Structures are given as structure tokens and as C-alpha cells.
């Protein structure tokens, strides 16, 4: 019995020892392939995921280099430009600009001329944009002073508007289906109001899409023709003559503002002058009436005074005035 127990204990110890010694040797075997796969193997690009057009154009599996204009293919670009030309014949150059635009399928959207300066806003097809700019640089009797070209990518805006148009059309169709199934008058009125609102949104989106496509199809070029190039501002502080000229210009501007203010206030002054004139006339008339009344009273008082004076001269005697008789007798008679 003891032998069986001893043999069992020894067998169990050998089994545990073998399992403990085998575990460390198995762990690196599992990690090694992963580490080798990360460090030693470079990631490969799936040929099936490459651009089919490039595979077809290559044919033999060689890589086709990208072209410079390939990135812009399929993009909706709005291109505008500002060109300043210098010429002694402004009207003639503007006419040649118009002819160059019409030769390339474009037109002049607006035109203005003041003798020494002419401006023309030209719309040309997008594919003839660069050609037209080159023609402006080669016009007879004109030289390019400044040229500025701007490009705006509106591809995302076009895609967004198109997606919203699709959704809005489906929404309008659903509202129309509800209108066909409406039973009461209240439901019909409510559905028609909603249908009108959604149709208005649909038309707005359509207009925006047409505007974007029009800007992409026709590029805008603003051409300014001047008789002489723009002069740079002189360096340094202004001199006496410059200050005098500036003061005179300021005086002229101030007088112009004063005259403009008077012209603006003149209608109001005319309207206010009518009641003021009426008030002045009324006051003058009142003064004349009061003066006439005072003069009448003075004339009436003068007529009563002579009667009183005559009565005093005839009826009053020297003794009646209370004067002493001696004083009256002592007065010598006048010779």
C-alpha cells in the first residue's frame, strides 16, 4: 500500500514538473510569429483596391504617374479675374476687349467710360478663360499693369444643393399624395399650406443650383483701362504747396457742405416763413391800432382844456385867487 502511495506521489511530482517546464518554452513560440509579422513583413497594397482606370491605362501592371490637371478633373470651379490695362486710347481698347470676348463666346455684362478711365465686366466660358486673359495681354496699344486671378471650388456646395433638391422633391411628392387622400376641408387647407411652403423651398434650391452652375460655366473678368498708370504716393512729409492745396481742397469741401445744408434746409425755411410773416404782420397791426387809440384820447383831452382855461381867465379875479390886496396894488402898471 505504501508503495502505491509513493509511486503515485512521484508520478504526480513528475507531471507537475513537466508541465511547469513546458509552459515557458511554448510562450515565445506564440509571440514570435506576431513579432516577425510586425517587424519583418512590410504591408502590401491590395491590387484589387487600386484605381481601375490606372490599371487599364497601364495594361502591363506599371504605375502611371499623375498628371498636373488630373486633380481638378470633375471639380466645379468658379474663376474670376481683375485686369488693369494702360493705354492712350481708352475707348478703342474697351471696344477691342468687347470684340475679344465675343470671339470666344462671351459677352460684356456692363460697361462704363469717363474719358480717362473705362471699365468693362466680361463673362466668358470657363474653358476659354485662360485664352481670353492671354488675348488681353496682347491687345494693340495697351499694356497690362495688374492682373489678379481667383479660383473658388464650389463642388461641395453643388453636391449639397443637389442632395437637398432630391430630398425636397421626394417630400413634395409625399405631400401631394397626402393631399389626394385628404377628406375634410380643414385637412386639405393644412396640407395645401405645407405643400406651398415646401414647393417654395424647392424652387429656392433650384435657383441656387442654377446660380452655381452659371458661375461655373461663365467666368467673370473685370477689365479697367486707364490713360496712365497709378502713381505711387511720394515719400516724406508734405511740402508747403501740398499743405496749401490740401487746405484749399478742405475749404472747397466745407463750402460745398454748407451750401448743401442750406439747400436741404431751404424748403423747411419757406414753410416756417409763412407763419412767422403772419405773426409779424399781426403784431404791427396791433401796434398801429394801439397808437391810433392813444392819439384819439390825446385829441379829446386837448379840446376840454381850453374851456377850462377860458373859464378861469374870465371868471377869476385877482381877489378871487386868494392873493393879498396889497400885493395886487403894489404891482406897477406896464408902460
From TrEMBL:
Annotated segments matching region Disordered: 22-75, 291-335
Keyword annotations from UniProtKB, A to Z: Coiled coil, Membrane, Signal, Transmembrane, Transmembrane helix
InterPro entries named in the record: DUF4349
Transmembrane residue ranges: 251-282
Signal peptide residue numbers: 1-21
Pfam family, one: DUF4349
UniProt superkingdom: Bacteria
Coiled coil: 188-215
UniProt domain DUF4349: residue ranges: 75-278
Protein name: DUF4349 domain-containing protein
Annotated organism of origin: Actinosynnema mirum (strain ATCC 29888 / DSM 43827 / JCM 3225 / NBRC 14064 / NCIMB 13271 / NRRL B-12336 / IMRU 3971 / 101)
Amino acid at each position: 500500500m505504501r508503495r502505491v502511495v509513493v509511486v503515485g506521489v512521484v508520478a504526480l511530482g513528475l507531471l507537475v514538473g513537466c508541465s511547469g517546464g513546458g509552459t515557458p518554452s511554448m510562450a515565445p513560440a506564440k509571440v514570435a510569429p506576431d513579432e516577425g509579422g510586425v517587424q519583418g513583413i512590410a504591408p502590401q497594397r491590395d491590387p484589387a483596391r487600386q484605381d481601375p482606370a490606372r490599371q487599364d491605362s497601364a495594361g502591363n501592371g506599371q504605375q502611371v504617374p499623375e498628371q498636373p490637371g488630373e486633380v481638378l478633373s470633375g471639380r466645379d470651379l468658379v474663376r474670376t479675374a481683375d485686369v488693369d490695362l494702360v493705354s492712350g486710347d481708352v475707348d478703342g481698347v474697351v471696344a477691342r476687349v468687347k470684340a475679344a470676348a465675343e470671339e470666344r463666346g462671351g459677352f460684356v455684362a456692363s460697361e462704363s467710360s469717363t474719358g480717362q478711365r473705362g471699365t468693362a465686366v466680361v463673362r466668358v466660358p470657363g474653358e476659354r478663360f485662360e485664352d481670353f486673359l492671354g488675348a488681353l495681354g496682347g491687345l494693340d496699344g495697351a499694356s497690362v499693369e495688374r492682373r489678379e486671378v481667383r479660383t473658388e471650388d464650389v463642388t461641395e456646395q453643388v453636391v449639397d444643393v443637389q442632395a437637398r433638391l432630391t430630398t425636397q422633391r421626394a417630400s413634395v411628392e409625399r405631400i401631394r399624395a397626402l393631399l389626394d387622400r385628404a377628406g375634410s376641408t380643414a385637412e386639405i387647407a393644412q396640407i395645401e399650406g405645407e405643400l406651398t411652403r415646401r414647393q417654395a423651398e424647392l424652387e429656392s434650391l433650384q435657383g441656387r443650383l442654377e446660380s452655381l452652375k452659371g458661375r461655373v460655366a461663365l467666368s467673370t473678368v473685370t477689365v479697367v483701362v486707364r490713360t496712365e498708370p497709378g502713381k505711387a504716393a511720394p515719400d516724406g512729409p508734405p511740402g508747403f504747396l501740398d499743405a496749401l492745396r490740401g487746405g484749399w481742397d478742405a475749404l472747397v469741401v466745407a463750402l460745398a457742405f454748407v451750401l448743401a445744408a442750406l439747400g436741404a434746409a431751404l424748403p423747411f425755411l419757406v414753410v416756417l416763413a409763412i407763419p412767422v410773416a403772419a405773426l409779424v404782420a399781426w403784431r404791427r397791426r396791433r401796434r398801429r391800432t394801439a397808437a391810433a387809440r392813444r392819439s384819439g384820447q390825446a385829441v379829446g383831452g386837448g379840446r376840454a382844456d381850453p374851456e377850462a382855461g377860458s373859464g378861469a381867465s374870465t371868471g377869476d379875479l385877482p381877489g378871487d385867487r386868494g392873493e393879498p390886496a396889497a400885493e395886487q396894488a403894489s404891482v406897477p402898471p406896464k408902460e
